[in-house]
From TrEMBL, chains A, B, C:
Protein name: Uronate isomerase
A GO term, aspect molecular function: glucuronate isomerase activity
This protein's UniProt keywords: Isomerase
PANTHER family per the UniProt record, alphabetical: URONATE ISOMERASE
């Protein structure tokens, strides 16, 4: 079945249905749709850009690494093994990539109304130029077409960076990562385009099974004595400097809560020792993470790195899936998050620093209007990140703008983050964000709440400038 | 005053105002508006269908049992007694049904903008064919017309089941209910159409004043020794089997929180003894309810019954009204509910069972996008029930779809529940749900977020198929 | 640059973009836009109306007292001192009012999409008749024009009350305020138009540094022995009586939480002594505030005053700003608020009193549909105040109606409060509320959820009547 182009990808998708707003949205969108992409926070694999090797096939590229896709399939009774997700124990899982691809095609209706289908459709029809609907009937031809194109030079990672008009992309690496792929491109033109981000959770979160080893490794990497509090902090400073050498302008912190703390030096020393002993309680681990957010803010004030806080994800909540398949397999759930009480210790110490830049993300949408926008609309150091993870979707984006703008304004936000490991979906994700922002602006204009020339200034700011400024990339 | 039909009941009510979306909504609605009604969860009285006697009058049928109506009247200073609500002490209350009906007419404006007026209007103009606006001026003629019609065969309960095109309706009975009305129709064609649901709260919730008696009665009914934990569980199993003989495919659990537990056998035995002693603390009662949700999930896995969890209602919060008029008099208020922490013990035990079906309901709308949709979008055993109680309304339905769909999709939902004891409002309630779902789908189509043929497949699924599948009725 | 009138202030601003709803909104708005303004709760300075002196200049009138404006400027790194906000230590701050005005002009884009720009634009173009866009280029001419007009009789406070069509305005004074300005107008025609409100937080909240002094002063003012619990309560009664002599029909209570309590007399006496000792704990202070809400409800039942509860603001959370610039400098943040558990003690005592009027306000929007509307839709003593503070905005108003109406109806609400100290913005704020309510009603009509004649009755009720009735002003 061949369908007309319109039904594959509506050129006016996501714009309001009423014609008055829609026309303004189209007009705004046309002025910004071709702006370069700034991707200041994400999880693509830097080896792709360092090695520039061809991707292998449709399934391995598009399905296996995408926990949005397999979480939904899993929710309908399809096993992880049958989707080729590797087992921790190395046990057998499905290896027939074409068969897995068919499973996706047979269940593609599950994604109706979700952003995954919008992203995948964009990949199919825009990136690969397919011109039929994805279905069990077309699964083979899609698989063959995509896998064949992936072997061509035009679909190598660097060529795609060009084609996607990605001006800059930041990857994310842990505190003890030696940055081999960023080292490989150091000194080349690519080093300005592919930068790293310092995400030290692995050496900050004492609840991790590998925390003690990671702190030891941190010492080895930096030559600091990380068995002492001072040495540990200096090792962090050293690693931040190394990351900056590889382009990093930001740190990132994924914590289960937004708790911060401001302990005395002796309290810090005792707490750090306890955590290193391997006998810390959950409350001590939480307090240590809390203290470290404040320490990281202090270091950001020293070295100018932008600090991102991604708080409130309860990760790997499915014990059986965690034991069999490991971390990050779609069993992550947002939790109620208290930013106000959480952030006060940090804000009391650094909240009025105009040179400090902290970007807040939330998975608890109730905090947009209740806590985050009022906080960002007052404290000089705070800005709001875009809707994150489960809320990185048309309705989620609309709720963010509707609930945050009136107290925080637009100028306390930092543009869009794709936050993805699904490289081919990056243009789709930025396009959704650009369309939704133009839609929001267009509605304000159509309702006489914003002047057209103001919307025309804001559209490129939201699509491009704020990301560069907010992450100090300009 | 006679008004034209349009002002009585807009044929395009609830559809979006803009013409592009509206036309699609109408088109979708026309394909599903005449589908039979599946009512898999509700509180109609099974004696109606067993005895098929005429209802008596407008007030007793439409007002007295409807706590949505008298809660609002009460909020404006109208006493329960004057509305004919029976007192616990048998004291005098208003018995002039016509006078009570007039009180409703004089205060009918209070319901503007609420679903009650939409449901009542549907009953007036569609079910009873009235053709004037309800007002003090027409109250008498409405009362006479309705009361007269109720004496005709066309308005007997079974005739209305036919006229309303209700294919199946489930009532809800407690653990110690002997199901006399379901027994009365056993073996007849009606037994396939009117089924029961197992709601064992009365023998599970130790905070009830009648818990100990109910557990004893449970033993008598089943011949099990319900003074022991094992006997108690076996008695539950026996009653589940009896309910299944009367058509039940589901259990239902109305708990104040979503807490679950997974205690050892000896802990369970000790806790059960404590609860039976009549000296349990509130925390022990909560823990017992929590443990019983997990036990019920285990039994569902054994016997295949679908498990519904209705969590988060704080019931009978008005102490004076409770003392004078008893339970369920409109003094129920939703409370903040933590599904994530609550459900983890149960999910750790059974969450990955693909043959287990748990349907979650909430009164805390903040959990749609933060907890429920992410949970249902991962765990194979979980599905989301429709908006419940205070949120079973046009705006409530819209928020549910807008907030749950992007993470859970449509296919982790189970269609509509009317959940009502107001029999005559059942068509109105399903019609509102169908219109709102068509509206939501139409908006997605108009905005290029869903293809028309996909919406055409989803509309009947949401209106009919998902309820049958989700409750194993097919 | 002169622009046409349309781009300065869209006559159809805030109405829905689609023409069907928009036309109904315009039609409704035209019937109520010229109704007099009832301002039953706010913070204007009564000396303005008593003395009727000219305001001095644009900056001192429009910017310095408006924490909405300087909080946003501060969030972007502009210091309080440079905005002329007085320091606690009397240290130097910017005194060049024209320079501060320029700072506002240069940063006016920050307010795009916020209600502040809508209010300011209304002041510029409607109140002062300016006909250019506000910008750095026009800042001087705006400043000169406004400052000059302020020196004319037409811009004196009383003339503005007339011009703004303000039928009645309530100011807000503390428990130990001697009401000099209200005394000054006593017996004149202005006393009926400018009334006070009793806000006793200063003598009720033991966490305040001046609590003990204030309680002592309360004794002096009333001749009661406020070192005893009984004398303290009698002093409150006396002050309520004095406030009523100056027009007050309402009390107001700004508490950090919605907690209420119902302690025994001996517990109250002990708690009061502890609080007066200066050694109370935070928990005891909270309990005292909680008990006092119940006491105040009891007094309202005695004297008929309407009781307002503004719960959930965490005030002055920026420690450094508080130390340098004092209270109420924009560092206030909403917090998660539990009305259900909080109010139960009070409701168990007085909830069913049909002569008691308690108006609830919230900064936690999640409580609209979860707690507040269900409570107000049952308890005779409860009504819902309009969206407050951060939520007093177009989107905030829409969320309030969308989330509260279906459970509470319209008739359990009390119209609009401007709640402002920015006198010149009062017409703008009421106009926004009137437009948004007409918009909400129009959408219901366009979607067949409300009849036009019902909307035509509701529009003036929401704009005018409900405020008079809800505050017993009629």
């Amino acid at each position: 079945m061949t369908t007309n182009k319109h039904s594959l990808l509506d050129p006016n998708r996501l714009f309001p249905a009423d014609s008055a707003s829609r026309e303004i949205a189209i007009q705004l969108y046309n002025t910004i749709k071709d702006r370069p992409i700034i991707s200041p926070h994400g999880h693509t694999d830097p080896s792709w850009f360092a090695n520039n090797e061809c991707f292998t096939d449709a399934t391995k590229l598009l399905l296996v690494p995408d926990h949005y896709l397999f979480r939904m399939l899993y929710s309908q009774g399809i096993s992880m093994s049958s989707l080729g997700v590797p087992r921790v124990d190395g046990g057998a899982v499905e290896t027939d990539m074409r068969k897995i691809w068919h499973c996706l095609a047979e269940n593609y209706h599950l994604f109706r109304g979700t952003p995954s289908s919008m992203w995948m459709d964009h990949v199919f029809y825009e990136v690969f130029g397919l011109n039929e609907l994805f279905s069990p009937a077309t699964a083979d031809s899609f698989y063959d077409h995509i896998s064949a194109q992936l072997q061509t030079d035009a679909y190598r990672p660097r060529a795609l960076l060009d084609r996607f008009n990605i001006e800059l992309i930041a990857t994310t690496e842990g505190a003890i990562d030696e940055l081999p792929h960023h080292r490989a491109i150091a000194g080349t033109e690519w080093a300005k385009r592919v930068i790293t981000t310092f995400r030290p959770d692995d050496a900050i979160d004492p609840s991790r099974e590998d925390f003690i080893d990671n702190v030891a490794r941190l010492g080895e990497l930096t030559g600091e004595d990380t068995t002492t509090w001072t040495g540990y902090l200096d090792a962090m400073r050293a690693r931040r400097a190394t990351f900056r050498e590889h382009g990093a302008t930001a740190t990132d912190h994924g914590h289960p809560t937004a708790a911060t703390a401001d302990l005395s030096r002796s309290e810090c020393e005792a707490l750090f020792s306890k955590c290193l002993s391997g006998h810390s309680t959950a409350a001590e681990q939480e307090l240590f993470r809390a203290q470290m957010l404040t320490e990281m803010a202090g270091m950001s004030l020293e070295d100018g790195m932008v600090m991102q806080i991604h708080a409130g994800a309860r990760r790997n909540v499915n014990q059986q899936v965690f034991e069999q398949f490991g971390r990050d397999k779609g069993a992550d759930v947002p939790s109620s998050t208290n930013y106000l009480d959480g952030l006060i210790p940090l804000l009391n110490k650094y909240g009025n620093e105009t040179k400090l830049n902290i970007i807040l993300f939330t998975l608890d949408e109730t905090t947009y209007s209740r806590e985050l926008a009022p906080l960002a609309g007052h404290f000089p150091c705070l800005k709001l990140g875009p809707p994150w993870w489960f809320h990185d979707s048309p309705e989620g984006m609309l709720r963010f703008r509707q609930q945050a703008t009136e107290s925080a304004g637009f100028y306390n936000t930092v543009g869009f983050n794709d936050d993805t490991r699904a490289f081919l979906s990056i243009p789709a994700r930025h396009d959704v964000a650009r369309r939704m922002d133009c839609r929001f602006l267009a509605t304000l204009v159509a309702e006489g709440r914003l002047r057209l020339h103001e919307a025309e200034e804001l559209a490129p700011a939201l699509a491009y400038d704020f990301a560069k400024q907010g992450y100090k990339l300009s």
